[in-house]
Amino acid sequence: MPIFDSHAHYLDTAFDSDREVLLTSLFENGVCGIIEAATSANSASLAVALAHRFPHLFAAVGIHPEDAGNAIDSDLQVLSRLAADEKVVAIGEIGLDYHYDDACPRDIQQQWFCRQLELAHALDLPVVVHDREAHEDTLCLLQKYRPRGVVHCFSGSTEMAREIVNLGMYIGIGGVVTFKNARKLTEVAAVIPPERLLLETDAPYLAPEPYRGKRCDSSKIFYTAAAIAALRGVSTETVLQWGEQNACELYNIPRC
Ligand code: NI
How far is the CA of 129 from the centre of ligand 1 (A)? Predict the structure, then answer.
């Protein structure tokens, strides 16, 4: 069964002890594609370097809203230069995060989100959008810029999911869909059109049940796909195939 992880962070320190060994073993055991999502200009360079070590690993380059406070103007040129690399398939992850009170000020987050939406448009690349407790502002800016791309680790309502789908964008669903208290997300996972679904881990975070709280890796997508399959009355293999096909289509990657 083809496992395509459309969003992971293997540069996280959680993988410092076994990064190369783990990735090698994942690709030998059914994982056919991984998108490494950068969070800053510096991590974007590292993501591109990592992508060059594994044929089926690709990079998204961008400045995460939590890092927007540290970003400097010239980072935009760095991203632009990196985006020309053949292993870069998207601008991301970018977006808005209103969860923490002491986070980067919202106007700075919005400024960097807009600048990177414009960059993606100029480079004709899709975007990987992070939206945490910022649904209204995120949707408003997506409706303004109308990018191609995905709202990753989707946490909005079914109404918002419908708006995202109407924009032609994808909905990224990860391990949270297997959690007991994930009623809103299970509703979304049950009704979105199959051709708009992306599977993801956000590894090392958000491992699905029965691994909740443990370090996550791309192989765990199986449990996420199984949960979505149960909600929709289809086989796990079918859901994995949707995830793989949609990711290859969005990111313009040859099928596994
Ligand atoms: Ni992420």
Answer: 9
- Distance from residue 77's CA to the centre of ligand 1 (Å): 22
Q: Which domains does the chain have, with CATH numbers?
A: 3-251 (3.20.20.140)
What is the DSSP code string of 43-100?
HHHHHHHHHTTSTTEEEEE---GGGGGG--TTHHHHHHHHTTSTTEEEEEEEEEE-S-
CA of 144 to the centre of ligand 1 (A): 23
Residue 61 Cα to ligand 1 middle (Å): 12
**How many residues belong to the chain?**
256
What's this model's pTM, rounded to 2 decimal places? 0.96
pLDDT in tens, 165-187: 999 999 999 999 999 999 999 99
What are the backbone angles phi and psi of residue 50, rounded to the nearest 5°? -65, -40
> 19 alpha carbon to ligand 1 midpoint, in Å?
17
Rg (CA), the chain: 17
Ligand 1 centroid distance, CA of 8 (Å): 6
What is the token pair recorded at 219? 């192989």
Encode pLDDT of 49-89 as tens digits: 999 999 999 999 999 999 999 999 999 999 999 999 999 99
pLDDT over 70 for what percent of the chain? 100
Instruction: For residue 152, report the distance from its CA to the centre of ligand 1, in Å.
Output: 8
Distance CA 222, CA 210 (A): 11
